[in-house]
Recover the amino acids of this structure.
């Protein structure tokens, strides 16, 4: 059995017998936790919210009934819902004038580059 077949077999067995490790993509648990951790560990985040947005309480500011970091956590969860997930990727190898084609492009789905999509919405 060649090495590619061994790797594929190992991957297949792992996915079948240990499905719990496949949930790292979980948009309702993992992404909000990653966002909260990133926000609280970023060095400039709080000061940017205070200086540039006028939020005296920084990321603890209440806006629209939620604390700012809760909005960010919600956004990271919503970003993976249909159809937004299609515009979640950006291939940085494409030159700036080709960003319309720099998004997800695989066998099942295609979408716009996240950078391009964010500028249109």
């Amino acid at each position: 059995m060649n090495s590619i077949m061994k790797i594929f077999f190992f991957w297949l067995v792992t996915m079948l017998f240990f499905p719990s490790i496949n949930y790292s993509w979980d948009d309702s648990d993992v992404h909000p936790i990653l966002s909260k951790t990133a926000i609280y560990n970023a060095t400039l985040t709080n000061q940017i919210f205070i200086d540039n947005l006028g939020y005296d309480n920084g990321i603890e500011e209440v806006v629209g009934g939620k604390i700012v970091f809760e909005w960010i956590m919600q956004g990271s969860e919503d970003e993976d819902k249909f159809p937004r997930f299609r515009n979640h990727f950006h291939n940085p190898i494409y030159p700036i004038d080709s960003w319309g084609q720099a998004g997800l492009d695989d066998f099942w789905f295609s979408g716009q580059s996240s950078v391009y999509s964010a500028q249109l919405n």
Q: What stands out?
A: The mean pLDDT is 79. Strands lie at 62-63, 66-67.
